Amino acid sequence: MPIRGIRGATTVEKNAKAEILAATKELLTEIQRVNELQIEDIASIVFTVTQDLDAEFPAAAAREMGWQITPLLCNLEINVPGSLPKCIRVLLHVNSQKPQVEIKHSYLRAAVGLRR
Asked: Out of 26, 30, 74, 109, which one is annotated catalytic?
């Protein structure tokens, strides 16, 4: 079965554990909903955060959602001057028969400006 990539991003107002978890759950739920994903179809997830977010790992949100066997990895986003602050990005690798053009990427909150 082919592996497809699904991108997404969101932002938080402040560097707080509860905000990072809530925003990440919202993003993952939206990606799962619009792509009709089953948890077992998710091969792995890579999260990145901007350097101004260190109160919690976004992967903890996926674990709280019950995604216990999915391999997860958190990284820092490169610090590009002028880039969107307080941003959580995600890349899901999913097993799917859908063509890549049918995959829906999700950008929420202030991150909607990252993609047109």
From this structure: 74
